[in-house]
Amino acid sequence: MVDEQRQIEKLRCILDVARHMAATTDLDVLLGMIVDAARQVLDCERASIFLYDAATRELYSRVATGVESIRFPADRGIAGTAAQKRTVINVPDAYADARFNPEIDRKTGFRTRNLLTFPLENLGGELMGVLQTLNKVSGPFDPDDEELARVLSAQAGVALHRWRLLEEYAEKRRMARDLEIARSIQQTLFPKENPTVAGYEIAGWNRCADETGGDCYDFIPLPDGPLAIFMADATGHGIGAALIIAQCRSLVRAVLSITPDVAAVMNRVNRLLVQDLQADRFVTAFLGVLDPVQHTLEYVSAGQGPLLFVSATGAESRSATGVPLGILEDFPYEAQRFDFLPASTVALLTDGFYETENAAGDQFGEERVTEFIAQRPGVPLADLIGGLHEAVRTFRAGGSQADDLTAVLIRRNG
After folding, report:
1. What does pTM read for this prediction?
2. What are residue 46's DSSP bridge partners?
3. Residue-wise pLDDT tens digits, 315-332
4. In what order do the strands lie in the sheet with 283-291?
5. Contact between 411 and 194 (Cβ < 8 Å)
6. Topology at the third CATH level for domain 180-412
7. Most buried one in 19, 117, 275, 343, CB count within 10 A?
């Protein structure tokens, strides 16, 4: 009767601890509660929790009373066996069991006599960790202790799973806030309005595939009337690409303040990017200077293409004039020129437009883009870009936007 009463008291203790475990969101506090409950309920000298790291398939300690933190493969030792077999392991004589590692005893001076090890699982059977109790005061652990361990492990496993879900949710919230800040900063780098140039209509537009993107465009007024037009696309998209593209834009602006020579600017920026970027990173970029008096566009296209030139007499597609920035340090970029006829349009689009695929795997492609622009000679450029974006969305038929989209259109008034 006394043993039965004691067992009931221990179960009440577990339930009381379970209520407290459900009220905390601090992992160290939660683990401390589990360890204290294990030592009290199982009447042992020490207890250790080994959390399971699914990414590395390792067990590691966050709470180990009297023992420093350790990490080891999840299939090693008594704890590993309990984790793999998902069963309670009762070892009445630790040094008689070949799975026992006496190294910790040697380091700490503690002598392990017996131990009870049991897995911690959530309701779905997913391994959360392992709890190990050492040296029951009154002798080896018995079957009643094993049953108490199962009850405690069930409560602790659910509590650890709840903590993990809350932590993942909090991390997603933190990432969302950071991404929103990054997106807000990046949006300030885009021109706040399209430039006004006598005799010309110019429009720029961007839509990121993620919160932040690896595309950008910029308009930089130069002394005495010319306008520099910059568009770039860094490899990939997201925060990494956004950081690279912000650096590239800043370098272009800085060098343009020294010289308006587009070839000199691109050569200088390229050398700087080669020094900074990793081997698998590069930037396709277009830099042109529009002279509204001479009606010319001097430009360098570093891997950015095709360049579309559409007029009443037809359409011309030009390839890039050099390799992307950040690849070959001494590549000699040279300027090309386009002469604007009345009512002619230059279309600069990143590859997100051309490479958008439909359900059959067909790409939207250069021909569709050219035809769309050529058939709408009098449509305002901002509306023309909006219509082209809608055509691309319709083409992909509900599929997600796989890449960043950026467009710059320049039209000489007719």
Report:
1. 0.62
2. 134
3. 999 999 999 999 999 999
4. 215-221, 227-234, 283-291, 296-302, 336-339
5. no
6. Phosphatase 2c; domain 1 (3.60.40)
7. 117
